[in-house]
Amino acid sequence: MSERDPFDFDREPAGQEADAPLERPEGDDDPALMGPVLEALKTVRDPEIPMDLLELGLIYDLVVKKGGIVFVEMTLTTPACPVAANMPDEVEAAIRTVPGVEDVRVKLVWTPPWTPDRMTEAARLELGML
After folding, report:
1. Is the dihedral angle over the CA atoms 11, 82, 123, 33 positive or is it negative?
2. Which domains are seen in the chain, by residue range?
3. Within a 10 A sphere around the Cβ of 107, how many other Cβ atoms?
């Protein structure tokens, strides 16, 4: 199986047929704002696995548009996750700390289900899974 690039946010989000239509913002991308938004996302860590959400592969889609509009599609390791109600708010709060961000939309999805295969190779190595 080939390694999925967890930072490739130009691909179409997987599994949309089972979820409500995306509320993705329109307009031009803002590549200058993408870097700071990614850095902000790296500060949000899973409470049970000591890794950030990007390394764990929990961020399925990230759109950053000019005008400071950010859209995140994310999942959790399991629907029974005890932080399911709070994690999207944590993601939103972290992104709102980025200068230039005006609006943040976080969508929690369960399709496709998360598996450890979504983790970066570095994360799997750190957790002793390689």
Report:
1. positive
2. 26-126 (3.30.300.130)
3. 18
